[in-house]
Specification:
By secondary structure, this protein is of the alpha+beta class. It is 40% helix and 18% strand. Helix 3 crosses helix 4 and helix 5 crosses helix 8.
Length: 230
């Protein structure tokens, strides 16, 4: 899962205390929020897996500690019935019901509520036949510097990492943008005043970016894209 080639990542500052990766509590918390396979009618599930194999959810010091870093991954499984396939099945069901309900050539009427129920039943049936789309995104934690690296720029994935990591360790994650990092470096020095005079470009965290995108749409503008490469 963890890819060593050059790529883009998102960095976060960890706000709050973390257990030591060498303590059993660290692995236990990952295990509590481990990935669990999709139930028959579920459409989406997610959780932690090891960095080496997305099928392994057993965590200990040997599987997570890599020198000064801690490595694991977020796995997301999602399945979705293609709309065209659902529509085709629904049309066949409607035709069959109309033909069965016909009386002397008069077609049977299907109410909106009946159509909704049919759609839900077909969706549940097709979900059982639909293989999930599997994603795995590497996560690297630097405990000493309190920085989390996520191997994804997807807004939805980043929000999922923020929520799950916060739930797992009872901490918060703040996007470590260039502006935030500059604030940390010059905090308490005369340079802080000069920094405040600079008109900054704030990339924001995953949630902030989502709010900005929604705001742009409400004003009729296309939302700007954001990336941080390293």
């Amino acid at each position: 899962m963890l890819r060593l080639r050059s790529q883009s990542v998102r960095r976060f500052r960890v706000l709050g205390p973390l257990p030591s990766p060498y303590e059993p509590a660290f692995a236990e918390r990952l295990h509590e929020r481990r990935f669990r396979p999709l139930a028959p009618h579920e459409e989406r599930t997610y959780g932690w897996v090891t960095a080496d194999n997305l099928l392994v959810t057993r965590f200990d010091v040997d599987t997570v500690v890599r020198g000064e870093m801690v490595a694991f991954a977020l796995r997301i499984d999602q399945r979705r019935v293609p709309p065209r396939l659902l529509k085709a099945h629904l049309e066949l069901e409607l035709e069959a019901r109309t033909k069965a309900a016909g009386d002397g050539g008069r077609p049977g009427r299907v109410s909106r509520e009946e159509r909704k129920t049919m759609r839900e039943e077909i969706t549940r049936r097709l979900l059982l036949e639909t293989p999930p789309h599997v994603q795995a995104h590497g996560v690297l934690l630097d405990p000493r510097r309190r920085v989390l690296y996520v191997q994804s720029l997807s807004r939805r994935v980043l929000e999922q990492v923020q929520l799950l990591f916060g739930d797992t360790f009872e901490v918060a994650l703040e996007a470590l943008t260039p502006w935030r990092r500059a604030q940390e470096i010059v905090a308490g020095t005369d340079a802080m005043a000069a920094l405040e005079d600079i008109r900054r470009t704030e990339l924001g965290g995953a949630s902030e970016a989502l709010a900005a995108a929604l705001g742009a749409r409400s004003l009729g503008r296309a939302p700007a894209t954001e990336e941080v490469s390293s």
